[in-house]
What we know:
- 74% of the residues lie in helices and 1% in strands.
- It has helices at residues 7-14, 25-39, 48-69, 79-106, 111-135, 142-166, 176-194, 203-207, 212-216, 219-222, 226-255, 261-264, 267-288, 293-296, 298-322, 333-349, 356-386, 395-400; strands at residues 20-22, 169-171.
- The chain crosses the membrane at residues 42-69, 75-95, 180-199, 226-246, 267-283, 303-321, 333-354, 360-379.
Amino acid sequence: MFWRISQEALTNLGNHKYSGIDDSILAKLILRRYWDLCIKLVPLWIAPNLITLTGTFAVIVSFFIVGWYSPYLDGVMPTWVYLFCAASLFFYQTMDNLDGRQARRTGTSSPLGQLFDHGCDSIVCTLQSLTAASIACYGNGFLPVFQLFMTALLPFWMATWEEYHTGTLHLGKINGPDEGIVIICLMFLSTGLFGASIWTTPLRHLIGEQSSVARLLPNVVLESKLNLLVVIALTVPTLITVVVNIRNVSRALRQKGKPVAPAMKHILVWMIMTGCAFAWYYTSTSIYGSQSIWMKNPRTVQLSIGILFGELVSRLILSHMCHIKYSVFQLPLYPLIISTLISITNFSMGVSIIEETTLLYSFSICSFIIYSIFVKETIQQLCSFLKIKCLKIPYVVSKSK
């Protein structure tokens, strides 16, 4: 039922070598020099995965702090919360780039490190999407759901999908892990310094009704709030990147003499997740309105979906490292599909066969249990096969360095 890795797959995993290209302009000019300085401050006895986990923990802490002050993804929070969120996200980015350096300098690079790193990244995507929604005052409507799937989960899935088929994780000249995180940090800092009201202000009032720019824009744009325009602006480059991902995979497969069409089916995983979430949102809010779980518990339901996404991505990464096929219908999809079908049934019959709160609790608990078992079993199998510790460097390695 849960992920079990065959001996043949483990053998393939033992021979796997990570291949990654980061063409980020900001990383080349500034960030890499900063990371190279930071790694000199890290003791040799600290395990790379522990560095990854420390950065992730900082984001988790900021997520819960923001959740305390902004449970419905709106409202004004204390200034220190915005500043802390910016600092924790920048700290996470730093740790996310130090773990690989630490692995190389201690000679402890492994497939587990790659999986651990990207697995944490996939969870952080959801956490940061919800944090950004609160800071930019999206509210508990459709906007944060749209942002989560279109600007956070979609690019992550497509980048991992490209790596699965090409063997290389290629980050462009302007990408999310580098420029994207820095932009979000600046967004958090700006909100702390200048206030959150700017995000709910119509563009007309920000640029001036009589300005030359205002005369060129249609009223629908001028009347739109800044947070909505930002999400739309982020969606456009995301879709362009998706086209590039598909182009790269098509080119790589043709060079290998392989058909392109079968590879496209893996995109269905994201489409199924997105379709189910949007259908669940629509049917639930149509029946219950402001009492819908998507309105009363927006952080819980979206986080639960994000947890399932994290496992789906991790399974895809493992399939790539083990050189095995990745099927479209994976176990983490089923809780979301079942919950969506229940909501659609409620909507169609006009009667709740399962009360919404019960449905949410069941879905969330199921998501966390499935993911927890997957993480536990996978780490145990990989550590046993590779004869390593997940969060510890053997004394002999640190001493030799």
